[in-house]
Amino acid sequence: MMDWLLVPFAYLTGSVSSAIIVCKMMGLADPRENGSGNPGATNVMRIGGKKAAAITLVGDALKGLLPVLLAKALGVDSVVLSLVVFAAFVGHLYPIFFEFKGGKGVATSLGVTLGVAWLLGFVVAATWFVAYKIGKISSLAALVAATLTPLYVWLIVGDVNLTAIFTVISLILLWRHKSNIQRLLAGQES
Transmembrane residues, as ranges (predicted)? Predict the structure, then answer.
């Protein structure tokens, strides 16, 4: 029964907005009210540069990684682990501490993949990197990596529950990037 408490813990951890905290600590503008209005690493880079974005990226990845590592250390079953993965991700998208207005979830989804299996996280990150090097567009790289993640989960981890939850996460990532997709299709994405 204690295992199930990890699910709300993961949501609360995911709800901590690295972008807002980093911007506040570095004396930068609120990312929800500047740039794209998205509290994520890409918008923080627009507002405050590479250092602020890197700190935000690491913070967002850690809030996905840590609850998953804790769940694995406690030996939870695949269903609970899948729910912990999803809860951390959803916490980032809809943070209780910040009026349920969060980021798009790319860095947090990377964190949960790293928590599930280091190789999985590495393959997802490498996919993003290769797609970025080819296309030079961060959102396109994120979409490519998100689309392939469920396949990677199945091939590397081989767990039905985790594959299903990462399929849902990938669909949400695609949905959260719908404006980016429209700009990509129109040839207007920067």
Answer: 79-98, 110-131, 151-175
